[in-house]
Specification:
Elements: E1 4-5, H1 10-17, H2 20-27, H3 37-40, H4 42-54, E2 55-56, H5 58-63, H6 69-76, H7 80-100, H8 103-125, H9 128-135, H10 137-144, H11 150-164, H12 170-179, H13 188-199, H14 207-212, H15 218-250, H16 254-278, H17 285-305
Parallel strand pairs: 1-2
């Protein structure tokens, strides 16, 4: 690991900025939002994070000036480093023109080329790049949500809000934040409360407001989160069903065995009551409850016929 000043290299700077891979990623909006490198390439992201902390270069002095480069990048969607690479390329072309043809012509090429390319980059990418990145936020959360830790989810939420402000997509990001850790919930009341908060938290953000605002990728995010809650609900029902089965096997009388299965029925009533009190419907809940009640009735009937 390197420490201290990063030795400038014109060759590496130019190569990095005119590489076909970089141009394709930027031109077609394939670049992930800032902070998502931990998902796309965790090893590289961690290395770069440490490297940036232990070293410094000429670019760090430039970023510390009050020129407002960050604001320029966010408002226009233009990468300042890409512009720097373009001007380096223009300088090299101008040098060739100056040596081979004429110095005055080289100066004209440099000035006109710089102005034209800057206008093309700024005008052509204005707002477009930001919007493309914003549109990638929800699909990225859906793709990497299972592997991401709660700390990463919170960090990404802060980064997105810091860069793009209170955009509509923050409604869904808030729901993802709340829903992290659902797989470890052990009480039905807690699961129902978490579903209520995912739909509308203390700040009024959540799935309910996102549906009203017709946010892009809402349906995909909603189906994904519903799947998470239903999966945990099925796991809790299965745990209670196994308890009821063990209890029924331990009881000697038919009545005691039926009572064991009836307690599972009471558990289902508690589920319906808890989620009804939230005021927000969990799609698929009624179907799951109905299937479990049919199973309970079959077990009771089997005991009565035995």
């Amino acid at each position: 690991m390197k420490f201290g000043f990063r030795t400038p290299s014109l060759k590496r700077r130019v190569s990095a900025r005119i590489s076909p891979k970089r141009i394709i990623r930027h031109s077609f909006g394939l670049k992930a939002p800032k902070g998502f490198g931990i998902f796309t390439n965790p090893k590289k992201a961690i290395y770069n994070k440490v490297y940036r902390k232990t070293t410094f270069g000429m670019g760090d002095f430039r970023r510390k000036t009050t020129f407002g480069m960050g604001d320029f990048r966010r408002k226009t969607g233009t990468d300042i480093d890409m512009l720097g690479g373009v001007f380096v390329f223009l300088i090299l072309v101008s040098i060739v023109f100056g040596v081979v043809i004429n110095f005055a012509l080289a100066l004209v090429v440099f000035v006109l080329g710089g102005v034209c390319l800057t206008l093309v980059l700024v005008d052509g990418k204005s707002e477009k790049t930001d919007q493309e990145l914003i549109n990638e936020i929800i699909p990225s959360f859906i793709e990497d949500f299972a592997e991401a830790s709660p700390e990463i989810i919170r960090k990404l939420e802060r980064e997105i809000k810091k860069v793009y402000g209170n955009i509509p997509e923050m409604e869904i990001v808030s729901a993802f934040h709340v829903s992290k850790g659902v797989s470890k919930i052990k009480r039905i009341s807690t699961l129902a409360s978490r579903w209520q908060t995912a739909n509308c938290d203390e700040h009024g953000q959540g799935l309910a407001n996102a549906r009203a605002r017709k946010i892009s990728h809402f349906d995909d995010a909603f189906k994904y989160l519903v799947k998470i809650y239903l999966k945990r609900l099925h796991e809790l029902i299965t745990i209670e069903a196994n308890k009821a089965n063990r209890t029924a096997c331990q009881r000697k009388t038919i009545k005691a065995k039926i009572n064991a299965w009836q307690r599972l029925n009471d558990f289902l009533d508690n589920i319906v009551r808890s989620f009804s009190n939230t005021g927000y419907t969990l799609p698929g809940l009624e179907h799951s409850i109905a299937k479990t009640r049919i199973f309970i009735d079959e077990q009771k009937q089997s005991l009565l016929n035995s």
